[in-house]
Amino acid sequence: MLKEIKILKSHGIQYVKDLRTQKVAERFRGRPVIANDITDEEKRQAAAICPTGAIDPAKGCIDLGRCVFCNECALALPDKIRFTNDYRIAANRREDLIIRPGADQPVRLAEHEIRPEIRNLFHGSLKLRQVSAGGDNSGEMELNAAGNVNFDMGRYGIEFVASPRHADGIVITGPVSKNMATALQMTYDAVPDPKMIILVGTDAISGGIFADSPAVDRSFPESHRIDLYVPGNPAHPLTFINGLMDLLGL
Amino acid sequence: MSRKYLDIKANPAICNTDDIPVLPYHEFYDLVSNLLADESKHCLVYFAVPSGENLQFYIAIADDTRNSILLAAHVSEREGAILQSLASGAYQLHGFEREIHENYGVRFEGHPWLKPVRFPYNRHDQNSVMENYPFYSIESEELHEVGVGPVHAGVIEPGHFRFICNGEKVLHLEIQLGYQHRGVEQLMLAKESALQRCILSENIAGDTAIGHALAHAQLTEALSETPENETLHIERCIALELERMAVHIGDTAALCGDVAYQLGQVVCEALRTTVINTTQLWCGNRFGKSLIRPGGSNFPLTEEVAESILKLLDDTGRRYAEMADRIFTLPSLLARFEDIGIVTREQALKLGLVGMAARSSGLFRDVRISHPFQFYRNFPVQPVVQTSGDVLARALQRKKEVDESIRIIQNLVARWKENKADVPMPSYHSKLRPSTFAISLTEGWRGEICHTAVTNAEGKLQHYKIKDASFHNWMALALAVRNQEISDFPLCNKSYNLSYCGHDL
Q: What is the pTM of this model?
């Protein structure tokens, strides 16, 4: 007993008090800011460097759904592109993940696009079934971390459940490998209505570095309405939880 | 007398493809059988490369006592080849022969079980699909089958586990993987830029991003004959050890969680956070993605980060030691860990286990010591071995490896401070040596990671073979649960924590 008390004392208070304002490391790469005066040549240069085609060569915008946050564009054009450590980059409209030159406002959900049943039913209690469909395990570990003693999304009644029958929606990581396509569909079908779909991580949102692989089957994410997109490589627990808090109206 | 194999004492090892002796299959068979009969040698990789009308086979065998890599080759027809199975005598080759069979249709006569490896999209037999795969089954009134997965209870990767049980007792477990297959090896060839290949390597298995990214960076540097930089080597070893520490502490949490010891779980989870947040401080990513690149680093170590690392080792090291002390003296925990999921040294040897799974069964294999790479060449790592081969051994293995990683990092930071030479920027535009065979090993936290490349006469990648430690070690789990309660399966699974995506590629 004494040993336990000593450990608890060392452990201290671990939970992050305010998940909205918690600071992360300076170098964490969240929302990018692209200078308004980025030239056409620089846009082409950035697009050519980008490993996943996240940068549009004509418009010079960065698609957070394709970005793997490798930082190479910012390294090549330090005066024109920089990644802030703003982790609140989840969105509920795919187009809101595209950051344009000159834009420096936070990424926020489009309130009117949130299905009313989500707020009505799941506001105080959201049970999610996670499906790893080709995820590399970093995303899955961060989702586990979202429920740990530091981030504790359980305080909002958000938790992962073992059975899709008990769930209110699915959370997908990975580009959706062909070999997981059937299992993903079956899991989704087993969730009772009303249900939601959340895509977590670059691979889930666009396929990421695997987008052009013949081993990947994008039909599920492309044919269903997605309620929340959570970018990252992997998505940081704070991005995930803040996105959910916004979706639920917490 | 002609040489039967090429012997290279280096890691990474590199040679002209033509220098690897190509043997008639019966000589290759005898050579490999004899070499692998000695426990100090184990197969690193054995694969085939389509080459016109033929299949070119390469094998790389590690010689742990002489710190060298032995290379040999043989050739068969592209279609319809039938070869006598080496795996029937040397079980450790079972996975490689299955993989070659699955990819190219080569029949290995006498192979104990040509079970599919990962159902790759370009497999030879397109009629072989996961949905109709015939699991090993038994007709019996008393036995029943339990199927778990691909989607499991927890937030983890998918795989299928088919148990044959007598009541609660597991008689047999068959594991079927492949759900995470994304075609990484083909993408390595299809991608156009070196940066894309770096991103790919980091995303093979995100929880061992540094292990794989380093194997790839090392390989690329060898192929492009990039000069070595000692400071860079030191920094990479620090990063690799931080990754090892982070996962081991996280696994300690998971093991506690599975036996309902909540204090251990939450404390270790919080401690893992401190380690990965330090990695994030260093490079902006909690898993070290973007930190390891060929030829240099975008995030050279700074005084500030080095001080944070030292502070982490002190603070987290002390708190982890305190928690571990409680974990390993708590009778209710020990009762759940001890004698559960035993894999003997003999089984480990037969299966060809590597890394942590091998070391916790008393079989010492560690590439940092047997085939030192980066700064491990100048800084010896102390072996950590457990002999009981049970869940307790694997838990203790993690605790002791954390201790050793702390010691290594402390020393490496001290060396870095003395060294303090500049680290160059990464290079993505180096030309690769033509007609070259190169192999690169790292000791990821699970065990030996092996990346192998073959270039053609134009200096383009012709073949890229990736092997994660999990490729060998999944069979250990299948054996560990035999004659155990099925309720101990999750604990056994977590005690190994093998990679699904690292296996499936």
A: 0.96
pLDDT in tens, B336-350: 999 999 999 999 999
* Rounded CA separation B274/A41 (Å): 42
Beta-bridge mates of residue B51:
B54
Q: Do A25 and B326 touch (CB under 8 A)?
A: no
Exposure on the CB side of residue B447, measured as CA atoms within 13 A: 28
Do residues B389 and B345 make contact, with C-beta atoms less than 8 angstroms apart?
yes
Whether residue B55 contacts residue B79, with contact meaning beta carbons closer than 8 Å, is answered with no
Nearest chain A CA: its distance from B499 CA (Å): 8
Of A164, A71, A235, residue with least CA distance to B293: A71
Per the CB < 8 A criterion, the answer to whether B218 and B230 are in contact is no
B287 vs A134, A163, A234: nearest CB: A234
| Cα angle B412, B301, B239; round to 5 | 55
Q: What is the torsional sign of CA A38, A40, A45, A51?
A: positive
- Asked if the bond preceding A194 is cis, omega within 30° of 0, the reply is yes
As given in the structure block, the two tokens for residue A50 are 């980008």
Q: To the nearest 10°, the Cα dihedral for B429, B434, B435, B439?
A: -40
Separation of alpha carbons A228 and A199, rounded Å = 6
DSSP B391: H
Nearest CA in chain B to A132: B157
Q: Which of residues 157-176 of A touch B (CB under 8 A)?
A: 160, 162-164, 174-175
Q: Do A149 and B157 count as a contact with CB atoms less than 8 A apart?
A: no
Closest residue, chain B, to A68 (C-alpha): B199
Angstroms from B157 CA to nearest CA on chain A: 5
Give the DSSP per-residue string, chain A: -HHHHHHHHHH---S-S-TTT----TT---SEEE-TT--HHHHHHHHHH-TTS-B-TTT--EETTT-----HHHHH-TTTEEE-------BSSGGGGEEPTT--S-----GGGS-HHHHHHHSS-EEEEEEESS--SHHHHHHHHHTSTTT-GGGGTEEE-S-GGG-SEEEEESS-BHHHHHHHHHHHHHSPSS-EEEEESHHHHH-GGGTT-TTB--HHHHHS--SEEE--TTPPHHHHHHHHHHHHT-
Q: Are A90 and A239 in contact (CB under 8 A)?
A: yes
pLDDT tens per residue across span A29-68: 999 999 999 999 999 999 999 999 999 999 999 999 999 9
